[in-house]
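Crash report, auto-generated. Payload:
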Amino acid sequence: MTHLLRMAAALLLSAGGAALAQDANLGRNLAATCANCHGTNGQVRGDTVKPLAGVSADKIVAAINDFKSGAQPATIMHQIAKGFSDDQIKAVAAYFAAQPARR
Amino acid sequence: MSKPSNLSRRRVLHVGLAAAAAPLAGCAGLGSGPSIGRVVVVGGGYGGATAARYLRLWGGNVDVTLVERNANFVSCPISNLVLGGHKQMSDITVSYGGLEAAGVKRIQGEVVAIDAHAKEMRLADGRKLPYDRAVISPGIDFMLDQVGGLAAPAAQERILHSWKAGPQTLALRRQLEAMPDGGVYALTIPKVPYRCPPGPYERACMVASYFKQFKPRSKVLVLDANPEIQSKKVLFEKAFADHYKGIVEYRPNNELKSVDAATNTAKLEFDDVRADVLNVVPPQRAADIARSAGLLNMNNRWVGVNWLTMESTAVPGIHVLGDATFSAPLMPKSGHMANQHAKVAAAAIIQLLKGEPVSATPVVINTCYSFVTARDVIHVASVHQYDAAEKTFKTVPGSGGVSAAANQVEGRNALSWAENIWADMLAT
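Recovered output after restart:
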């Protein structure tokens, strides 16, 4: 947990700028945009879509960047990933990594 | 809320392991401890239900009351599959029990007046509901006076819209089932903006899929007031040609002027069309409660909102979600978008109740799947970031888009989307 907090603090202090640093709920709010398909807090229902809760932040960042670059083909995620900045992707990933997997 | 211990236990049962993520105070706080504020949510659809759920999930002890006239949630998305005979009403109906277990007080009823100065709502049964912040997610009502003859009782009985999922979904299905092979089903589409831009074209596909299998000599006639298909155009054109050649006929620039219920006739500018089943999607505006509350400050039709909070720009203290809002550029009126509006509103309302600053950088996404056959699906997606200079949401250049082609992988993803968004909004 301290590691996560340190990571989150580093994230907020680094490239984010004033608006991001003031917004303690940034990761939570951004992650909620994913919930419609990936489940509330990334705890997905069914086995069609990949769960995000409890997945390491590095893994999530890498996956989204692979969608962004086209390295990983997708039906829809390549289009959605391009809508988020690097800082936003890091904040989303940190939030999901800290959530317990549903099962 | 009279038995907090019961609620806590039920909540733990419903939420399961996820409850472990919440601080213990979150559970203990249900029904006990000082409330940080009272929020009344009007409308339990994609926007309102999500707002109620997330106010509880994120707000700790926010006192949330949801007023909804229907006993259960019935989904517009996926309802076209009921028309096609591929799903049943029970497949698109979900209970509000999950929200109640999450600590939302539910009232099945109707708000008839909102006193924004006294911060109080009045229900049809005379009860009064005081609030600190109100959330109105009323959906749409129809501008029946825009189509001659449509408001007449005989027309209302026979000519269905089925543009609000529920009894009319089933009633239209029954009309299609009763129609003889060789009959004509005519669907009229109003000028934009209307709820669910791709919805009419998906409906044409679903009805055609039913005809193709069971009534192959029948026709689907799409009478569109717009100059072209309004969403996923190339993909729908391909579906019409590949799957429904000889069944679907698409006519652009055909605005409905009036109807004759006695003969089931749609009267267009240059043409009259007699149909066996006439399905009129009328022009729309924000629903009645938004109008009576004085919220329609955009073209006397839609509700202007501050996109950082979703608060009405006409009446302070009232946050408005979903189809009723005057949309930001390229922002569709969709259930998915209403869910996203609700999360922006919930986050902002909690901050406002605490006297803390709201997020300055909200983001919303839209994803909309359309079935072109019982299994093949196409999507449109967009990402909208808040633009501080223009005080609105704008799509991110280079992001978003549509399917490369209709496919069955997205058919499974669409049903998974429904399962997950219903769980997200209704806390099932």
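Post-recovery validation: Chain A touches chain B through 38 residues (CB under 8 Å).
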